[in-house]
């Protein structure tokens, strides 16, 4: 016998005990107040807030490290969230406006710039950063726990969520925070969709596309990123989807095509061989071309890789046949439509259609509904990010994007880090009776404070039209509540724990203009404060209500507005520097508006007007203290 | 007298006349400049260091102004610094853009070239400076009332409202004022500039100087209120002049204001002068001959129409009364003559009025008039038409322009001086990174927390840097924190390092006094340089100072502190270990900067207490400016808060003077204020009277004894605290005669009671009056406003504008409309929304 065998056995035994370091897990009854599902950016962000509030929580992660999505995606390894290190400002809050990757914490240096100084950092930097974030803040993450099943039970203490992992171990949680992200590739079903390669599995080596005709389904960032990567080798790249391409710098939506990815637009318009086309994907059919050709010379045909033809479903003769992908020439559009743009066959078809939420692990008792927008890919949520039919289950991060799909930044790190904070404040108020953090101010200081927020705050700036500051007027004092979820305004009092007095409230929102203008053309910007309501670029808007709007009023708000029609509204004119601090165009109109909201003169005075007898004399006067 | 004035006025002062003859501008050399200076003459000198097109343009204007100014005894000159190196001014950098006025051999004032850039602005500004003492300013209606009151029965007032400085109008006014003030034998009037309501923007031709105010801002201020009787028309933008006839009217008038006449002609030196002369003319002259044979008006009224009214012997009195009434309305427009019907009067009976225009060859026109208005129209209509036309021309600018005028005086003055704002960089900057190290370095760090865009912050920054300059070389480290940059420091977020020793800053500006290893002390006083400097200076000694020798005690009580004479409080305790010492030390901490505190224990304390006839623990206090210390026993186990109010009460003067600075602390006592308003003493007699009044008030306190403790008896000096004028006005609804004694801020209600104005203020009768007030037998003279301080302007209503221009934009959806979720897509909503994340 091998004498070393007993030792080996011993080692295995020791190893096994180390598999279960926590006795809570050992007996299979892990109970937590808060379970966070997923250790991606939103999960860790929530972990930070829970940890800072000293809550009983655990973050469950199926992989061995945080942010595993970013180990694979984006496939071509360049993050397109900006990492602007040099802003000329030392203001940490302001700098977060230009740092789209870092998470929120009270550590001044816990930022992505420690890992990468690139403006568009490599994707590998992100998991490194997340890991650093988790370790330095000592967040409780349990790796290697693959939750396969989530159910809800009613217990004497209220609703509980039970999460079951791959070892059939249960985690029981009062509040479930789903931060699992989006990673299931989105597919569109059409005839021949099985012939399509997916973004998740394609080769990222351009050499593999040498001299090939490539059709890409989709016109988002992953599609263009792929196109950009292969266009130097491929014979041609065509891109197909139902909608024309939407440019992020025009729509102000960072999920649309970013300029960093749009080389192909250039080669298309400059008459290279690439091109874009619009057809609804469920109307197309992709067929594998059977080489029926005959050779006049009778020579043996070279064995080619299969070719793919795009046609429309309605031209297929054998639609009922399951095996419709083997088409005959007569069914191709080249035959049917004389100059059809995709009449030539392709060597490859690649689907780059994004991702969907993984609904499959939820049992019916705990399953969120599908969203009305985004083709139902996302869970449907309340304005405070709770599942519509799943009380105590909140969705964080990218998966929570149904609230501001295609309109704000809630699907992206630089946006959802703030909504996560708002959700945490909802939790603190609901489960622990801690009202939202607020600042009490003298009403005479309100103007200064608003200007300060407008000029530095990152939350309302990134999450424009979704998060806004709420100012509760109380006569000579006021209460400043930051970054409330605007759509939940009718429920403000119960969600935030702050009462609204008879003096009413002001809501400060950053918003873009709703007019479609030529974004680089003349007259695109307004500089007159009196026409500030026509501003096109991001600018502050203040809504004054004498009481909280109702749910009904919120529902029927004017089209394109984040809030219902108020008693009075004030737009601060868009500014080229996005700095709102000029005396005539910004400050004085704001002061006058606030005067109407609080019904008080808010001017400051020299206390000794006679000390300044003549305007020619230098004004070394006493300034009275604003009280 | 008049001919001399007229001679002056006939000079070509219009500003448009360009003279070609020899110029009055003197080019000085060093020697003759010094001679001229020492001769005591008034000199207006430019030290030319550079040659540039701008300067050359200016010199042309300066030359022209020399002619004009020499009539006012001002010698205009220039010194060419390039010809000979000149002492002082030639070497000074600021002299490049400054012209200096010398009076009595000394520099009197420097004028920036931004301010004096053409003949009009030079003449007006120089005269403005010379007349500084002679011309009073009206800022509020109460100012005006007080001034009118003072002038009643003695003087008339010319009230001028100049819409912008440095203009032709301003110049005309100043020239007239000069004539009135210095050439008339009897100084019967004062010219009062009434400029406060406007932006002091200057008209300025393009291309001169560096600063061109935005066009729309030039004298486009919307007047925020009007002063009756001279209500300044809200829409009017032109300068205006009123004549207030105060000399002929004493207190008996029904209105508080003197009767007034508005000048209707456009303002020019000549028109202003003849207007003022017309005001001197008799209101109604009585004649006994026919209008056709009445002589035309004599100089200086030769350009004035005459209006004749006919009087019958039977209705002589009534006719005169009516004529006088009409004359008041026609003042400044026409002279009124009352023609007594006599055989010499040939005018047919059917006519009751007649007039004659001043033009040569014009004849008397007779008419039958039924009302005074008809006659009035004859002379006012053409003028009004003119005015209308003028206004129409002015209307070219859209209405919102006045909206851009800054109406916050601090914002306005900071904006006006934006090129000369103090540089925060010259002060030590506290940052999140250096905060702890910097504070540890010196025993006292004063930090100003500011926001760069806040006007008040900027105004305070200026006084703060003054204080920093004055404190240079001292132990005190003056520093600033830019809260727009160091937002985490201002929010007191330490980020792990030692805790920040203050609460998050939520008011800007805030001044904190920081000492190593102590929590910060917040400065709560006025933000002017003087008050700040005083506080910081007095904060430097320990609080309390630990005293152990007789000499130390004496010097603690007597020694002046810099130039301040702070109030002092000395705690006397049996031992250092006494429980009260800790409380006293805590109280001393919060008094730091305002009251010097000292601590004395053991034998010496016993001795001092015995000398003052109190038992330990005790406090000796010496109010600021007082000569004798007062002693009082302290409660044995008092909290720091109780000690504070004890010391505060002991320091309070029995009849303190109320100032803007101490008002909040007085109000916080929660006692009714028995407040005596006294005017500025013009002479020794006034001074004695005021002293006597204060003595009576002290007697009120003494006689009243414990009963008076519910009131705080105090006085307010309108000269020291001009703001008191409007306070008094708002208490009583009008300006009462001074001195005025009021009872206000009663805990029981907002009534304001006024001590009968015609009764002498004597302690005994004041006490009786107070008793009557308490008994409810006195009626209130006014009410305190409900603290309502309404918004300054009407709401600029974006919703209304949207509704007008695009009604659908801001309309709530009707309930049946489909509510679409999700954001707007681009382009318009698609049939196949499809995107990836």
UniProtKB/TrEMBL annotation, chain A:
<feature type="signal peptide">
    <location>
        <begin position="1"/>
        <end position="19"/>
    </location>
</feature>
<keyword id="KW-0560">Oxidoreductase</keyword>
<dbReference type="GO" id="GO:0004497">
    <property type="term" value="F:monooxygenase activity"/>
</dbReference>
<dbReference type="GO" id="GO:0005788">
    <property type="term" value="C:endoplasmic reticulum lumen"/>
</dbReference>
<dbReference type="GO" id="GO:0036503">
    <property type="term" value="P:ERAD pathway"/>
</dbReference>
<protein>
    <submittedName>
        <fullName>FAD-dependent oxidoreductase domain containing 2</fullName>
    </submittedName>
</protein>
<dbReference type="Pfam" id="PF13738">
    <property type="entry name" value="Pyr_redox_3"/>
</dbReference>
<keyword id="KW-0732">Signal</keyword>
<dbReference type="InterPro" id="IPR036188">
    <property type="entry name" value="FAD/NAD-bd_sf"/>
</dbReference>
<dbReference type="InterPro" id="IPR050982">
    <property type="entry name" value="Auxin_biosynth/cation_transpt"/>
</dbReference>
<dbReference type="GO" id="GO:0050660">
    <property type="term" value="F:flavin adenine dinucleotide binding"/>
</dbReference>
UniProtKB/TrEMBL annotation, chain B:
<feature type="signal peptide">
    <location>
        <begin position="1"/>
        <end position="17"/>
    </location>
</feature>
<feature type="domain" description="TXNDC16 N-terminal">
    <location>
        <begin position="24"/>
        <end position="127"/>
    </location>
</feature>
<feature type="compositionally biased region" description="Acidic residues">
    <location>
        <begin position="383"/>
        <end position="404"/>
    </location>
</feature>
<dbReference type="Pfam" id="PF24508">
    <property type="entry name" value="TXNDC16_N"/>
</dbReference>
<dbReference type="InterPro" id="IPR057639">
    <property type="entry name" value="TXNDC16_N"/>
</dbReference>
<dbReference type="Pfam" id="PF24510">
    <property type="entry name" value="TXNDC16_3rd"/>
</dbReference>
<feature type="domain" description="Thioredoxin">
    <location>
        <begin position="428"/>
        <end position="536"/>
    </location>
</feature>
<dbReference type="Pfam" id="PF00085">
    <property type="entry name" value="Thioredoxin"/>
</dbReference>
<dbReference type="InterPro" id="IPR036249">
    <property type="entry name" value="Thioredoxin-like_sf"/>
</dbReference>
<feature type="domain" description="TXNDC16 third thioredoxin-like">
    <location>
        <begin position="283"/>
        <end position="374"/>
    </location>
</feature>
<dbReference type="InterPro" id="IPR057645">
    <property type="entry name" value="TXNDC16_3rd"/>
</dbReference>
<feature type="region of interest" description="Disordered">
    <location>
        <begin position="808"/>
        <end position="837"/>
    </location>
</feature>
<dbReference type="InterPro" id="IPR013766">
    <property type="entry name" value="Thioredoxin_domain"/>
</dbReference>
<feature type="region of interest" description="Disordered">
    <location>
        <begin position="380"/>
        <end position="404"/>
    </location>
</feature>
<dbReference type="Pfam" id="PF24509">
    <property type="entry name" value="TXNDC16_2nd"/>
</dbReference>
<feature type="domain" description="TXNDC16 second thioredoxin-like">
    <location>
        <begin position="231"/>
        <end position="282"/>
    </location>
</feature>
<keyword id="KW-0732">Signal</keyword>
<dbReference type="InterPro" id="IPR057642">
    <property type="entry name" value="TXNDC16_2nd"/>
</dbReference>
<dbReference type="InterPro" id="IPR040090">
    <property type="entry name" value="TXNDC16"/>
</dbReference>
<dbReference type="Pfam" id="PF13848">
    <property type="entry name" value="Thioredoxin_6"/>
</dbReference>
<protein>
    <submittedName>
        <fullName>Thioredoxin domain containing 16</fullName>
    </submittedName>
</protein>
<feature type="domain" description="TXNDC16 second thioredoxin-like">
    <location>
        <begin position="128"/>
        <end position="180"/>
    </location>
</feature>
């Amino acid at each position: 016998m091998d004498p070393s065998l007993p030792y080996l056995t011993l080692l295995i035994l020791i190893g096994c005990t180390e598999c279960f370091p926590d006795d809570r897990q050992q007996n299979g009854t892990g109970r937590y107040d808060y379970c966070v599902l997923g250790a991606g950016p939103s999960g860790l962000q929530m972990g930070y807030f829970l940890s800072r509030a000293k809550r009983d929580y655990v973050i469950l992660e199926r992989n061995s490290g945080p942010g595993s999505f970013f180990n694979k995606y984006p496939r071509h390894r360049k993050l397109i969230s900006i990492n602007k290190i040099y802003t000329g400002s030392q203001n940490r809050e302001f700098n977060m406006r230009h740092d789209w990757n870092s998470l929120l914490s009270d550590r001044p240096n816990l930022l992505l710039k420690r890992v990468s100084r690139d403006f568009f950092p490599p994707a590998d930097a992100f998991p490194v950063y997340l890991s650093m974030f988790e370790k330095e803040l000592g967040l409780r993450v349990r790796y290697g726990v693959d939750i396969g099943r989530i159910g809800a039970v009613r217990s004497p203490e209220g609703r509980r969520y039970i999460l079951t992992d791959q070892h059939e171990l249960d985690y029981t949680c009062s509040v479930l925070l789903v931060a699992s992200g989006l990673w299931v590739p989105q597919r569109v079903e059409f005839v021949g969709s099985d012939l399509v390669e997916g973004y998740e599995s394609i080769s990222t080596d351009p050499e593999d596309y040498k001299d090939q005709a490539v059709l890409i389904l989709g016109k988002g960032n992953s599609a263009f990123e792929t196109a950009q990567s292969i266009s130097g080798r491929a014979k041609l790249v065509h891109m197909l989807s139902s909608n024309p391409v939407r440019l992020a710098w025009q729509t102000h939506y960072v999920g649309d095509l970013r300029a960093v990815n749009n080389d192909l637009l250039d080669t298309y318009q400059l008459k290279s061989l690439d091109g874009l086309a619009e057809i609804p994907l469920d109307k197309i059919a992709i067929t594998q071309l059977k080489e029926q050709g005959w050779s006049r010379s009778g020579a043996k045909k070279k064995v080619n890789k299969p070719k793919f033809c795009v046609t429309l479903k309605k031209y297929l003769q054998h639609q009922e046949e399951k095996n419709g992908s083997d088409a005959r020439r007569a069914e191709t559009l080249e035959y049917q439509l004389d100059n059809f743009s995709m009449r030539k066959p392709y060597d490859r078809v690649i689907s780059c259609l994004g991702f969907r939420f993984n609904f499959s692990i939820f049992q019916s008792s705990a399953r969120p509904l599908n969203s009305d927008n985004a083709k139902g890919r996302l869970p449907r949520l309340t304005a405070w990010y709770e599942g519509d039919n799943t009380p105590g289950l909140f969705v964080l991060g990218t998966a929570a994007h149904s609230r501001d799909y295609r309109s704000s930044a809630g699907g992206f790190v630089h946006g959802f880090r703030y909504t996560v904070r708002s959700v945490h404040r909802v939790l603190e108020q609901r489960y622990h009776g801690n009202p939202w953090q607020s600042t009490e101010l003298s009403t005479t200081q309100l103007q200064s404070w608003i200007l300060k927020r407008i000029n530095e705050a990152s939350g309302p700036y990134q999450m424009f039209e979704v998060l806004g500051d709420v100012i509760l007027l109380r006569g000579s004092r006021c209460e400043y509540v930051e970054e409330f979820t605007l759509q939940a305004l009718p429920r403000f009092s119960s969600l935030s724990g702050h009462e609204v007095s008879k003096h009413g409230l002001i809501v400060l929102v950053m918003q873009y203009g709703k007019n479609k203008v030529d974004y680089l053309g003349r007259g695109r910007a307004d500089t007159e404060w009196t026409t500030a309501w026509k501003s096109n670029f991001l600018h502050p808007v203040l809504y004054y209500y004498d009481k909280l709007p109702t749910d009904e009023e919120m529902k029927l708000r004017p089209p394109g507005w984040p809030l219902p029609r108020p008693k009075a509204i004030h737009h601060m004119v868009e500014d080229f520097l996005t700095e709102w601090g000029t005396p005539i165009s910004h400050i004085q109109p704001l002061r006058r508006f606030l005067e109407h909201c609080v019904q008080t003169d808010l001017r400051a005075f020299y206390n000794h007007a006679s000390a300044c007898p003549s305007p020619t004399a230098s004004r070394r006067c006493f300034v009275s203290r604003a009280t | 007298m008049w001919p001399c004035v007229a001679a002056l006025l006939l000079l070509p002062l219009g500003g448009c006349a360009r003279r070609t003859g020899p110029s009055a501008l003197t080019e000085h050399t060093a020697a003759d400049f010094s001679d001229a200076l020492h001769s005591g003459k008034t000199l207006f000198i430019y030290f030319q260091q550079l040659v540039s097109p701008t300067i050359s343009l200016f010199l042309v204007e300066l030359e022209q102004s020399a002619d004009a100014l020499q009539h006012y005894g001002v010698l205009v000159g220039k010194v060419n610094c390039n010809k000979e190196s000149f002492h002082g001014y030639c070497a000074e950098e600021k002299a490049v853009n400054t012209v200096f006025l010398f009076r009595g051999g000394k520099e009197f004032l420097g004028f920036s070239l931004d301010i004096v850039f053409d003949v009009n602005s030079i003449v007006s500004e120089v005269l403005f400076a010379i007349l500084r003492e002679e011309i009073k300013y009206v800022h509020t209606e109460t100012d005006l009332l007080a001034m009118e009151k003072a002038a009643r029965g003695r003087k008339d007032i010319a009230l001028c409202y100049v819409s912008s400085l440095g203009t032709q109008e301003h110049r005309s006014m100043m020239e007239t004022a000069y004539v009135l003030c210095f050439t008339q034998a009897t100084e019967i009037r004062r010219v009062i500039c009434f400029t406060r309501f406007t932006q002091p923007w200057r008209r300025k031709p393009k291309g001169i100087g560096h600063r061109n105010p935005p066009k729309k801002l030039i004298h486009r201020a919307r007047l925020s209120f009007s002063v009756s009787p001279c209500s300044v028309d809200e829409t009017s933008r032109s300068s205006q002049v009123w004549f207030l006839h105060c000399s002929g009217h004493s207190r008996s008038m029904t209105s508080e204001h003197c009767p007034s006449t508005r000048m209707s002609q456009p303002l020019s030196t000549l028109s202003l002068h003849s207007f003022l002369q017309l005001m001197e003319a008799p209101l109604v002259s009585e004649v006994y001959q026919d209008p056709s044979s009445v002589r035309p008006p004599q100089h200086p009224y030769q350009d004035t129409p005459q209006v004749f009214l006919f009087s019958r012997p039977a209705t002589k009195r009534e006719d005169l009364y009516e004529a006088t009434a009409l004359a008041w309305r026609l003042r400044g427009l026409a002279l009124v003559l009352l023609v007594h019907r006599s055989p010499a009067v040939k005018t047919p009976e059917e006519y009751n009025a007649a007039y004659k225009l001043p033009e040569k060859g014009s004849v008397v026109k007779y008419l039958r008039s039924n009302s005074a208005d008809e006659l009035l129209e004859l002379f006012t209509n053409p003028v009004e038409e003119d005015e209308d036309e003028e206004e129409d021309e002015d209307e070219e600018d859209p209405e919102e322009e006045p909206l851009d005028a800054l109406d916050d005086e601090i914002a306005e003055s900071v904006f006006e001086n934006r090129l000369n704002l103090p540089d925060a960089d010259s002060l030590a900057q506290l940052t999140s990174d250096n905060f702890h190290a910097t504070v540890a370095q010196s025993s006292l760090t004063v930090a100003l927390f500011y926001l760069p865009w806040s006007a008040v912050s900027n105004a305070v920054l200026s006084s703060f840097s003054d204080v920093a300059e004055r404190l240079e070389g001292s132990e005190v480290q003056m520093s600033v924190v830019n809260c727009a940059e160091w937002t985490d420091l201002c929010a007191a977020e330490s980020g792990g390092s030692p805790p920040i020793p203050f609460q998050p800053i939520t008011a800007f500006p805030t001044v904190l006094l920081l000492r190593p290893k102590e929590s910060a002390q917040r400065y709560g006083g006025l933000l002017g340089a003087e008050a700040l400097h005083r506080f910081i200076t007095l904060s430097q000694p320990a609080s309390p100072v630990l005293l152990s020798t007789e000499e130390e005690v004496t010097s603690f009580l007597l020694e002046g502190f810099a130039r301040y004479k702070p109030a002092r409080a000395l705690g006397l305790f049996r031992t250092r270990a006494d429980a009260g010492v800790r409380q006293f030390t805590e109280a001393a901490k919060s008094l730091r900067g305002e009251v010097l505190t000292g601590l004395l224990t053991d034998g010496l304390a016993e001795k001092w207490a015995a000398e003052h006839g109190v038992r330990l623990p005790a406090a000796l206090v010496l109010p600021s400016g007082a000569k004798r210390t007062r002693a009082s026993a302290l409660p044995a186990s008092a909290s720091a808060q109780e000690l504070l109010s004890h010391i505060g009460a002991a320091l309070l003067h029995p009849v303190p003077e109320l100032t803007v600075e101490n008002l909040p602390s007085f109000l916080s006592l929660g006692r009714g204020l028995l407040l005596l308003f006294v005017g500025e003493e013009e002479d020794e007699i006034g001074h004695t009277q005021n002293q006597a009044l204060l003595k009576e008030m002290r007697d009120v306190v003494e006689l009243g004894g414990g009963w008076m403790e519910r009131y705080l008896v105090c006085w307010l000096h309108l000269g020291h605290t001009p703001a008191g004028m409007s306070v008094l006005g708002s208490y009583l609804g009008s300006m009462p005669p001074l001195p005025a004694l009021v009872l206000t801020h009663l805990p029981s209600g907002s009534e304001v009671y006024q001590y009968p104005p015609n009764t002498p203020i004597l302690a005994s009768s004041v006490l009786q009056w107070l008793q009557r007030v308490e008994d409810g037998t006195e009626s209130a003279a006014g009410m305190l406003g409900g603290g309502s301080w309404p918004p300054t302007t009407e709401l600029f209503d974006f919703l209304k504008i949207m509704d007008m221009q695009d009604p659908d934009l801001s309309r709530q959806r009707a309930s049946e409309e489909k509510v679409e979720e999700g954001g707007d897509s681009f382009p318009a909503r698609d049939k196949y929304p499809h995107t990836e994340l």
